[in-house]
Amino acid sequence: MNELTITVIIADRSYKLTIPKEKEEAVRNASKVIDNQLNEYASNYQYKDKQDLLAMVALQYATTAVELETQISFHNHDLIDKLAEIDRIITEQL
Questions:
Q1: What integer pLDDT is reported at residue 10 of this predicted model?
Q2: Can you give the pLDDT at residue 76?
Q3: Which of 66, 37, 67 minimizes the C-alpha distance to 54?
Q4: 72-69-20-35 Cα dihedral, nearest 10 degrees
Q5: Which among 62, 68, 9, 63 has a CA at the least distance from the CA of 39?
Q6: Share of the chain above pLDDT 90, in %
């Protein structure tokens, strides 16, 4: 396999990861996004330790993921209905 070992820093901690080489850019960008959001929360809200900030960042991204999954499911359902209608129309014309 084409794996790569990289180190990313999140919340002032280093994490050594072994990932597929083609995912390097995505993983590095994701770690930067997390760290940027963490810093944004740190500058705008009071917190006891970075665990609080990490929990808020995790909640934000998990919420976004759930919302996107719901939207995708809805769009897929609409797509299936439209394709069934198109299939019905084409079948009637044959």
A1: 94
A2: 86
A3: 37
A4: 130
A5: 9
A6: 87
* Among the listed residues 65, 52, 64, 61, the one whose alpha carbon sits nearest the alpha carbon of residue 11: 52
Tokens of 77: 């359902």
Instruction: Answer yes or no: are the C-beta atoms of 45 and 60 closer than 8 Å.
Output: no
pTM summary value: 0.72
CA separation for the pair 34, 54 (Å, rounded): 8
d(CA 33, CA 30): 5
How many Cβ atoms sit within 10 Å of the Cβ of residue 60? Answer: 13
Closest listed residue to residue 41, CA positions, set 25, 15, 61: 61
The DSSP output letter for 23 is G
Structure tokens at 16: 């050594």
Cα 9 from chain centroid (whole Å): 18
Mean pLDDT by 10 residues, the chain (94 residues): 93 96 97 96 93 95 95 88 92 90
